[in-house]
């Protein structure tokens, strides 16, 4: 009886200790929702929608903001591989496999649709939930580059039918397989949305 009394007391103390931790996590913002990315020149170039399923977050391209004259370019992902080859750009899963650790999201990947390269990735969310820092890298996070996106209102697009690429039912394979094309880190050729941070050594900032 004494043993069970001690066990109950220990469980009660553990519950009291963990309660604030669980409550704080529940109150923290998440990356779920709409986000806007920006070109290297400054203007916005795309919108994304993040959703969570089974504890894993995925971000899809839901709107392109092309440069003047590029409205009819980059409608499909020519450089993607596997089931994403030739998939429509709208609805394409760009950020995949993100696992939440408080305000950090780790163990994910980011696809650069300009050349089909897939990088390791992590996301750090601001404490107010209004900005996220998406870092793409190869192997070590120090060897990479960060892009900052800003949150959009939840009603930016209808949520009943968010764009999903027909060929994009599976997640992007976690591999950095395709060689990077010769363009400057983060700079998109033509009107392709520069959505993925190019992983360049010593580019951390």
Assigned CATH class: Mainly Beta
CATH architecture: Beta Barrel
| CATH fold type | Lipocalin
How many domains would you count in the coordinates?
1
Beta strand %: 35-45%
Run of helices and strands: HEEEEEEEE
Helix share, percent: 10-25%
Describe the main β-sheet briefly.
8 strands, antiparallel, barrel
| Poorly predicted parts | 10-24, 166-192, 197-205
Number-wise, the strands total 8
What's this model, at a glance?
The protein is mostly beta strands and 205 residues long. It has one helix at residues 2-27; strands spanning 33-38, 44-53, 56-64, 93-101, 104-112, 117-125, 131-138, 140-151.
Give an overview of the whole structure.
The protein is mainly beta. It has a single domain, classed as Lipocalin, CATH 2.40.128.520. It is built from one helix and eight strands. It has one helix at 2-27; strands at 33-38, 44-53, 56-64, 93-101, 104-112, 117-125, 131-138, 140-151.
Give keywords.
eight-stranded antiparallel beta barrel, 1 helix, mainly beta, 13% helix, Lipocalin, single chain, disordered C terminus, 205 residues
Please describe the topology of this protein:
Layout: H1 2-27, E1 33-38, E2 44-53, E3 56-64, E4 93-101, E5 104-112, E6 117-125, E7 131-138, E8 140-151
Antiparallel strand pairs: 1-2, 1-8, 2-3, 3-4, 4-5, 5-6, 6-7, 7-8
